[in-house]
């Protein structure tokens, strides 16, 4: 799975916007949207929000968790805990990137939020690498990783699977040899 | 004589605050929790000097140019006064000192501390100090005896001790007070005080009274109390003359007594009811300054006027008095004596006599008054009044304790409320530097008062109306309104400039988009609003000025009270004004609603209801044009046109707010859908401009009782729905197009709710309630209710309902007739003359004309889709009415062919619309509200009527003796089919019940047995035989019947066929009972 595909999936997340136009309910396969009243918040998927934003048809209301205090708290907790802590949204990274890139003027303290989310991401990826490392070192058969997001799984998947395959090959090459050696002994 | 209470002012940060006067009475000196001592030149001094004495200052005392303070670093320090130079540390404690006081001469300072010690230190020589040990808890207060021999102190251990200073011994000790472990936990500060000059009495606050103890005998001579003093007395303070005693309580009540007569002279209440923690008399005795635990300072002026009238002579006499006794007391009071210092005499008799002498001298010596020489403690030892001459307050023995305390007449009735100021609904307070001048459903006007730049930002919610604007606000506009057509700004007038009105008429099609009007001098704009095509401005001259949107001056009229706010919607103008003076926190507001249409008229003028103790915080029209108000307690009320223009509370925003300090700032109300749009404000009443606040939507909720129960919920829904229905009538009567779909949806919802309530009442055996509900139902719903009632076996109820149905049908018919007659008249009210004439020509024409789009209907400019319309389109005739976009993905539910057989009739309500019975209703619902019903529909109603009428008769016939009736009685009908009465029909149809199947099989054999039977007799006979069968056999037949049973739709079709055939039938008399029986048995069939 490509990162852009994950981002595409994230675009179905719902975000609140304040439209500056008036439109009746629109009926889409995914569900009904609207009605749009100027000045009144309405929930729409991210893809529509970004589209409207780019056409300057709305203001985006940042999600509740996209707040400096809350993110700081989460980052600190993430740093403190050994395991992965629950993230504010299953698509926090993607949403942050999308919203900050396209609607940073509607999000107070956008730069701080970007840094904080990046910190959170880095901490989690570091943890992920560390756990992958110990997983391989200890030659465990399985591991349980809670609270991982799709994007995080996606970043490590290609590398981890390939390396595990590789190692499996190496080991399987090694093992027949050793058994051979043993059989030779007898 | 009532004194004058000055408004309190902020003095220090929150916490214990103490106050005293300087010796001349010129300065008020306070200390507080912020560690500063402030020197105020009167209470109005906005820039007091201050001396920082520590982190916190607990107590202070001032005398002879020296200021001692007890501060948080466990020391008692001296500063010079008024320069504030530090003058060394007087003494130290192991913890902080809690109270300090000078003796009357200013030579010694006593300090009590939290380490249970009281120290008496000589000011000039801090090595000369006496320590008084004996308290077992922190010391609350200390007071010097004016003769400088004794010292009284109170402590948290509950004791009050009088000490001999020289011996450092206890003279007497009482345990009077509630115990506590620290000064901060003590309920009362218990600031006791010796009577000045004579030191004859010691006043000790004990609970909610003040005890007076006599010197030397230390007996409790009297108690001063007052009804108003319901809480613990915190502080007592003697007036400098020693005649009056002021006491202040934890509850913020200050009472002043004349001690000799025990008369209460003054009662004052702290304006906020905070604890008063310090009280001080001015040296002249006419002012009383007090502080509360919130750091505020207050002042009472002209306290005990009678006394102060004599103050000057007394004071000048005091000098004489000093001279008289000069030398007498020097033996005792030789420490740092200043010549001006008064000598409190020891002997009562001497005082009395010398007092009189002095008094006389005083009156003779009036010219020599010298207020500059006033000294604290010398301020009128003998405040004689002619009538009190014999009862010298300072020296006489206190009156007997039983003397009644007579009350001076004080007005304690309802107090008038300050009238609320004029405001713009949807604006935040004008003193803010960044504020909203207006936030309504059209846009936002923000005002920035940053120095040096003043600016106004105008933003439209709908960018299609206009792009946002940014103006400089050089004129200082304070008020604004914004509409689809224009922006209106106004500034109050100043000395040079008149009050100005600026209108940015952006929707104007010419190039001049702006106009300015100057109001006459000394007339200020107080409130303004924009309607459609007009501007209304209420001014301080109690005038309401109307302008056209283009700037023409229109009508001017006077208002009957000062304006609170104005708002407009379409042609409607609402003015809220002060009807009079409200009392006890209430406002007396009146509301005027005017229509400024072609005919200017006053629609209503009535008092505006508000919650108790609240003011108006928002006023406006809903998007649909109903007047709404919001008061400061968050109750949203709506003008209910169908209830004689009364106000119905529709929402309480406080119900939804999480904490007490959270508020909702209402910006708009909508009726379709029902919404209160508001901004949640955390911890304030209004939102800040940044971060940009988000709008929240609150639903309507009518405060009915027991809304937790199912019944209460449905009642609330019903009344809410019918309240919201009002605006359709209003809009259509004022010629706007209405959302007919929404209206019919609302009507349907109401009928459904009524049916649900009906079903619930049926379940609860409340038949009377059922009938009441039926009265509220439409005719079609009543028919359904009849079905429901008869199906659930309540025949009596069904019967009552059918009479109601009959009445309703008649009413409907009459209404229709009336409407038909009214039709031409109605057209006259429509705005367009030409359209009216043509319509009149066709008045009462066929339905084809009715169904054509009506060109005379105006677009509702407030409906959301019309917002984008330009101003020309407002008056443009509409040729196509709005068609809601249909949902291509919606699964249609109404068209399902099979009708569920469940006993719950409610499940099928929407589907029933397709039945011939209710076709008239569905027809009428699709057509506009005021359209007359189509003739076809009418005939249908009549047929319903005909069908109903005989049924009732039949039932009453049947009741007494059902057996001889040729038709099967109800019970057997339940088992039999709905087809029974029409044998020919039975032949053609497929059998539906076990009995029918059986009958089909066995009719031949029955006929063979008794060939002379006719159809009805045959069935009767068959039934007897069927019953005779065993249960198992019958069951098998029923089983067979079930499998073969036709679905609901087919049955319905047959019903129709029956009806059609009946119409074709010539024998009317025979057909009616049959069809009625048909119906009844149809109900019965469902109940199987």
UniProtKB/TrEMBL annotation, chain A:
Keywords: DNA replication, Nucleus. The keyword Nucleus applies. It comes from the Eukaryota. The keyword Nucleus applies. One of its GO terms (cellular component) is GINS complex. Residues 3-61 form the DNA replication complex GINS protein PSF2 N-terminal domain. One of its GO terms (biological process) is double-strand break repair via break-induced replication. It is found in: Nucleus. Residues 65-167 form the GINS subunit domain. Component of the GINS complex. Belongs to the GINS2/PSF2 family. Required for correct functioning of the GINS complex, a complex that plays an essential role in the initiation of DNA replication, and progression of DNA replication forks. GINS complex is a core component of CDC45-MCM-GINS (CMG) helicase, the molecular machine that unwinds template DNA during replication, and around which the replisome is built. This is DNA replication complex GINS protein PSF2.
UniProtKB/TrEMBL annotation, chain B:
Core replisome component that acts as a replication initiation factor. Binds directly to the CMG complex and functions as a hub to recruit additional proteins to the replication fork. Transmembrane segments: none annotated. Its main location: nucleus. WD repeats lie at residues 9-41, 132-173, 233-267. Residues 988-1056 bind DNA. SUPFAM superfamilies: HMG-box, WD40 repeat-like. It is found in: Nucleus, Nucleoplasm. Residues 320-333, 810-822, 840-852, 1057-1067 have a biased composition (Acidic residues). Residues 988-1056 form the HMG box domain. This is WD repeat and HMG-box DNA-binding protein 1. Residues 951-977, 1044-1056 have a biased composition (Basic and acidic residues). It comes from the Eukaryota. Keywords: DNA-binding, Nucleus, Repeat, WD repeat. Residues 311-419, 808-1002, 1044-1088 are annotated as: Disordered. GO terms for biological process: DNA repair; DNA-templated DNA replication; mitotic cell cycle. GO terms for cellular component: nuclear replication fork; nucleoplasm. One of its GO terms (molecular function) is chromatin binding. It holds the Pfam family Ctf4_C. Residues 913-933 have a biased composition (Low complexity).
